[in-house]
């Protein structure tokens, strides 16, 4: 009996170490349709090109990154993180410097490149409404904040991140080029006017559910989630008026055990081809300037980079510098 | 919970060896030390060391009306959920105890199956049921009972309904054990001596079942204090609970000093409640409950 148990323990230990060494790269992202697309466009291609075994993990968790780096036991090699976090984490020593001998940054959108991060994809916060239940939807941020013209619930992104505060200021009449530094007092005052009518969404899937069920017939969404919802047959109205862009970044946590593979993975993910495939699958915009030429005209029209007329770029550097202060105030305001 | 296992484990080994069973508890204690005590101490250290040494994090925590409101809200929700769970759970436990065993096992299976179903799935199911365009509101509106959908979710009502549902088994299971152990002859004796049915319930059954009620209520209250998933999904931001606040500090703001301070306060409060419970009912009687 004792012997059997011993053997079972040894076998279990062997299989555990086997599993650990079989992963040549661990890629972490936010789950859902976005990570599915990242797997298909990047991870599967990387695996077949190099023979490496790419393990998918998630969701991205900044607390975990900090814990891993501090403990010196980093199990994530490439992480998809929000752009403002990436800038801040790079400054705080939590990330590896990227190797631009491996990653070709000459073709990458310079808005999203730092020493420690490159754009993973970029997205727009847009105004969306359920066209089956609302005939005339909100067109501007001011409309979305107007409870007289548009009564009922509206949904916004719950977490402290670039987007909602900018939308509130734009709705209050702040000019797009005068947004930064953000006037937080004014933004929260504006948000107070609709606070009781806000349903917060914590993730993309929830935002889709709220809109599709008309639980909140309008709101502020990631453009790709609306594209995906439309493809399932839900009647969705979209307004790109003053769409607010923000980007996700690819980063390598400091102390990654597969640093070389991580650089090669990022090189593939940010290549014109990799970015094109991901964009087609998700409706998010490529961060490689060469990708557009590889896509057909109809597809390109639905992407944020075709909506530059009134586009507002969230300032990632401002956010990186003020992330903690804004976040503390944001959550305190929400809990009031 | 741990007191329950400890007492039964100790009892068994005493019967087996006739001596103290501490050695047998050693692996469990070691596990607790490495995976529980050490991280908790680490967290406590962070709360007084980050960002700079001192009690600054605790001062911020207790000095802000927002955080105090979150503490209060957490206690209020936990108290309401505990009270509701006991009120709803007691009759169910009683019924389970006196039912023919064939039927009791069916009810038991329903209870356990619901416990074993994924928590997230169950919470999402409540979301779908309770929302403005959900089944409950639609039915009530179609029946003409209401004109406007009731706000059942993203507020305190949603959290209370969802959490009470999830906590119910933790009251019912220990209570059932205690009620089953009560000799039916005692109730008969009471009624023979002229007690009314109401007196039998309030003067005999409930006092005898009190250790079970206390065990169940304690478990529910303590679990509720640190509950995360259900309040996060069914509650609004205006009635945030402590666990959500800690998650925000740890994950979103990456402010582990504040997260550690909040977690430590929660731990101290929980231990205090447990201490009071032990004083009032004693570990042995708690053990009987489970």
Overall average residue pLDDT of chain B: 86
How many domains make up the coordinates of chain B? 1
Here the CATH topology of the largest domain in chain A equals D-Maltodextrin-Binding Protein, domain 2
Order of helices and strands of chain B: HHHHHHHHHHHHH
Q: For the terminal residues of chain A, how far apart are their CA atoms?
A: 61 Å
What are the segments of chain A in which pLDDT stays under 50 over at least 5 consecutive residues? 1-5, 7-21
Quick one: CATH class of the largest domain in chain A?
A: Alpha Beta
Range of helix content of chain B: over 70%
> How would you sum up the global shape of chain B?
globular
Strand fraction of chain A: 15-25%
Largest interface: A-B, 22 and 22 residues
Largest sheet of chain B: none
Q: Strand tally of chain B, please? A: 0
Structural class of chain B: mainly alpha
Portion in strands of chain B: under 5%
- Contiguous helical run count of chain B: 13
Uncertain parts of chain B: 1-14, 286-290
Shape of chain A: globular
Tell me the number of helical segments of chain A per DSSP (H or I, 4 or more residues long). 13
Please indicate the count of domains of chain A: 2
InterPro entries (chain B): MetI-like (IPR000515), MetI-like_sf (IPR035906)
Family (chain B): Belongs to the binding-protein-dependent transport system permease family. CysTW subfamily.
Protein name (chain B): ABC transporter permease
Pfam family, one (chain B): BPD_transp_1
Written overview of the protein:
In chain A, strands 1, 2, 3, 4, 5, 6, 7, 8 and 9 form a nine-stranded mixed beta sheet that branches. Chain A has helices at 2-22, 32-50, 62-71, 83-91, 141-144, 164-171, 184-192, 204-212, 223-231, 259-269, 272-282, 297-301, 316-335, and strands at residues 25-28, 54-57, 78-82, 118-130, 154-157, 198-201, 218-222, 236-251, 312-313. By secondary structure, chain A is α/β, with parallel strands linked by helices. In chain A, strand 1, helix 2 (32-50) and strand 2 form a beta-alpha-beta unit. Helix content of chain B is 82%, strand content 0%. Chain B has helices at 2-17, 22-49, 56-63, 65-98, 101-116, 119-130, 135-142, 156-181, 184-192, 197-225, 229-234, 242-252, 256-289. The longest helix of chain B is centred in the first third of the chain and has 34 residues, at 65-98. In chain B, 33% of the residues are buried. The chains are: A alpha/beta (336), B mainly alpha (290). The A-B interface holds A 61-63, 66, 153, 158-160, 199-200, 202, 213-215, 324, 327-328, 331-332, 334-336 and B 64, 66, 69-70, 131-133, 154, 232, 236-238, 240, 245, 248, 250-256. Chain B: Residues 71-277 form the ABC transmembrane type-1 domain. Chain B: It is found in: Cell membrane. Chain B: Pfam families: BPD_transp_1.
């Amino acid at each position: 009996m004792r012997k059997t148990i011993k053997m079972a323990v040894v076998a279990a230990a062997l299989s555990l170490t086997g599993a650990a060494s079989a992963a040549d790269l661990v890629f972490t992202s936010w789950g859902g349709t976005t990570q599915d697309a990242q797997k298909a466009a990047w991870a599967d291609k990387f695996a077949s090109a190099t023979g490496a075994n790419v393990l998918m993990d998630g969701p991205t968790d900044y607390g975990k990154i900090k814990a891993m780096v501090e403990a010196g036991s980093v199990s994530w090699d490439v992480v998809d993180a929000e752009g403002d976090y990436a800038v801040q984490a790079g400054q705080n020593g939590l990330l590896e410097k990227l190797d631009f001998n491996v990653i070709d940054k000459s073709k990458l959108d310079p808005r999203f490149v730092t020493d420690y991060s490159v754009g993973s994809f970029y997205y727009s916060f847009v105004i969306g409404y359920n066209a089956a239940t609302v005939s005339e939807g909100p067109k501007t941020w001011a409309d979305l904040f107007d409870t007289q013209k548009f009564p009922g619930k509206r949904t916004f992104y719950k977490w402290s991140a670039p987007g909602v505060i900018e939308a509130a200021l734009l709705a209050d009449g702040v000019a797009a080029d005068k947004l930064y530094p953000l006037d937080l007092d004014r933004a929260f005052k504006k948000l107070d006017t609709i606070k009781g009518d806000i349903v917060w969404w914590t993730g993309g899937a929830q935002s889709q559910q709220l809109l599709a069920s008309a639980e909140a017939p309008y709101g502020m969404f990631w453009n790709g989630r609306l594209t995906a919802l439309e493809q399932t047959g839900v009647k969705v109205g979209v307004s790109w008026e003053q769409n607010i862009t923000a980007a996700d970044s690819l980063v390598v946590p400091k102390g990654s055990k597969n640093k070389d593979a991580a650089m090669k993975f990022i090189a593939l993910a940010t290549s014109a081809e990799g970015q094109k495939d991901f964009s087609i699958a998700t409706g998010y915009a490529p961060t490689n300037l060469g990708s557009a030429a590889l896509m057909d005209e109809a597809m390109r029209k639905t992407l944020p980079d075709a909506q530059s007329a009134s586009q507002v770029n969230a300032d990632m550097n401002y956010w990186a510098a003020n992330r903690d202060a804004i976040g503390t105030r944001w959550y305190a305001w929400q809990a009031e | 919970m741990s007191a329950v296992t400890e007492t039964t484990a100790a009892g068994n080994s005493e019967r087996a060896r006739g001596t103290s069973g501490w050695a047998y508890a050693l692996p469990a204690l070691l596990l607790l030390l490495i995976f529980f005590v050490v991280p908790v101490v680490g967290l406590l250290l962070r709360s007084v060391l980050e960002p700079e040494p001192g009690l600054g994090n605790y001062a911020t925590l207790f000095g802000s009306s927002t955080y105090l409101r979150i503490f209060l809200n957490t206690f209020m929700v936990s108290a309401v959920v505990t009270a509701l769970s006991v009120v709803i759970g007691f009759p169910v436990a009683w019924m389970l105890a006196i039912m023919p065993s064939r039927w009791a096992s069916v009810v038991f299976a329903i209870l356990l199956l619901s416990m074993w179903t994924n928590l997230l799935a169950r919470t999402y199911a409540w979301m779908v049921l309770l929302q403005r365009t959900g089944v409950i509101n639609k039915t009530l509106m179609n029946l003409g009972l209401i004109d406007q959908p009731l706000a059942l979710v993203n507020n305190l009502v949603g959290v209370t309904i969802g959490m009470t549902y999830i906590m119910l088994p933790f009251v019912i299971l220990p209570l059932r054990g205690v009620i089953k152990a009560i000799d039916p002859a005692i109730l008969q004796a009471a009624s023979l001596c002229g007690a009314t049915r109401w007196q039998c319930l309030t003067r005999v059954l409930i006092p005898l079942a009190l250790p079970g009620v206390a065990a169940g209520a304690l478990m529910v209250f303590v679990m509720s204090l640190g509950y995360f998933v259900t309040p996060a999904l069914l509650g609004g931001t205006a009635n945030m609970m402590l666990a959500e606040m800690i998650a925000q500090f740890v994950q979103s703001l990456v402010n582990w000093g504040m997260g550690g301070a909040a977690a430590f306060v929660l731990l101290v409060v929980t231990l205090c409640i447990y201490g009071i419970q032990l004083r009032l009912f004693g570990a042995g009687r708690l053990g009987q409950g489970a």
